[in-house]
């Protein structure tokens, strides 16, 4: 059996530190109730923060799947120089994919052509509807990523509730062990 050498000069300091630790530990346990301790664990504990982050990521997955069916805006700018003249064009295009598989595009452009002998301006507005033949057809097929993300989020919510309950149980056991020790 090995003994650690402790000098006699440090012994009173060690005893004083030990006594202060006991006094403060007893005072802290008398002021901190089980409910306070579990609330601190739930607010500041790493495990609970991990649970909250997993819920947040599941929510972001649902929002990402929903964003596939939102309006998308695309600016259009064209500039071309050639020996015959110059072409300039500006416009805006709006696209929306539906859950039935079709894609609707609405756009407007303003083109201007200018050469030495000729110039023209042509504003255009267009509406385009695209639907794949025998591909991406049907509500169930196109909304599948959104449904999967929503199911994963519900599963994550249930797992989070279970993990939170386990966290509370562990905190309660640790508190009782510390108080009874």
Short structural description:
The protein has about 180 residues and is α+β, with helices and mostly antiparallel strands.
Number of strands: 4
Q: State Rg.
A: 34 Å
Shape: elongated
**Structural class label:** alpha+beta
Strands across the major sheet, in which order? Answer: 1-2-3-4
Oligomer: single chain
Helix content: 40-55%
Secondary-structure element series: HHHEEEEHH
How much strand? 25-35%
Instruction: Provide a count of the helices.
Output: 5
Which residues sit in consecutive blocks of at least 5 with pLDDT less than 50? none
How far the N terminus sits from the C terminus, by CA atoms, comes to 27 Å
SSE layout and pairing:
Elements: H1 11-31, H2 34-44, H3 46-67, E1 72-81, E2 86-97, E3 103-114, E4 119-130, H4 139-142, H5 144-180
Any overview of this molecule?
This protein is an alpha+beta fold. Helices cover 52% and strands 25% of the residues. A four-stranded antiparallel beta sheet has the order 1-2-3-4, with no helix packed on it. A hairpin with a 5-residue loop joins β2 and β3. It is elongated and about 105 Å long. The model has no long low-confidence stretch (mean pLDDT 81).
